[in-house]
Amino acid sequence: QLQLVESGGGLVQPGGSLRLSCAASGFTLDFYRIGWFRQAPGKEREGVSCISNSDHITYYTTSVKGRFTISSDNSKNAVYLQMNSLKPEDTGVYYCAADPLRTSVQTMCDMSAFRSWGQGTQVTVSS
């Protein structure tokens, strides 16, 4: 059974760091697109960062460029999101998602292009 499990969320002060992990089971991530999405209270879910494991192309939404880094470790069948210089507006539930279909760079982080989703992990940035 295909499953994605996120971990690593928590409460952190502004300026702090967290590393989110997304562990896959039931399939291998080698040639998948994997994305991190977040949903803040009262807001729509948005794409934060995505990676194509087949060609190592990455995408970051503008608000996290230079602060977040997405990476994958095929030996562990996992994808990570290193989040530095966290801001209160980064607060939300973070979800990872995966899909085997390749897309254009412009659409690689569209939510509609992902069919498998994890349950999410809460990230709260507050003093």
Notes on the protein architecture:
It is a single chain. The chain has 127 residues and is an all-beta fold. It is 0% helix and 48% strand. The protein has strands spanning 3-7, 10-12, 18-25, 33-39, 46-52, 57-60, 68-73, 78-83, 92-99, 116-117, 121-125. The strands form two sheets. Strands 2, 4, 5, 6, 9, 10 and 11 form a seven-stranded mixed beta sheet that branches. A four-stranded antiparallel beta sheet has the order 1-3-8-7, with no helix packed on it. The relative contact order is 0.31.
DSSP strand (E) fraction?
over 45%
Oligomer: single chain
How many helix segments? 0
Strand/helix succession:
EEEEEEEEEEE
Number of strands: 11
Cα(first) to Cα(last) distance is 40 Å
CA radius of gyration? 13 Å
- Average pLDDT confidence is 95
What descriptors fit this protein?
single chain, 127 residues, mainly beta, 7-stranded mixed sheet, 4-stranded antiparallel sheet, 11 strands, 48% strand
Question: What is this structure's SSE topology?
Answer:
Layout: E1 3-7, E2 10-12, E3 18-25, E4 33-39, E5 46-52, E6 57-60, E7 68-73, E8 78-83, E9 92-99, E10 116-117, E11 121-125
Parallel strand pairs: 2-11
Antiparallel strand pairs: 1-3, 3-8, 4-5, 4-9, 5-6, 7-8, 9-10, 9-11
Question: Could you give a quick summary of the protein structure above?
Answer:
The chain is mainly beta and 127 residues long. It is built from no helices and eleven strands.
